[in-house]
Amino acid sequence: MVILDFATEIVWHSGICEVPLAKVFEIFDRCFDHSKGNTTLIPRLRDRACKAGRALVHLGVQRKCIGEEKGDPLEELRGTRWSYSSRSYDDDLESTFNIVDRLIGALQPINWTEFTFSEPHQRWLSHILLYRAWDHLCYASKLTDDVEAFVTHALSTEDADPADITDCLFIISLVIGLPLHVDNLAVDDKR
Question: Domain segments of the chain: what residues?
Answer without folding.
Answer: 2-175
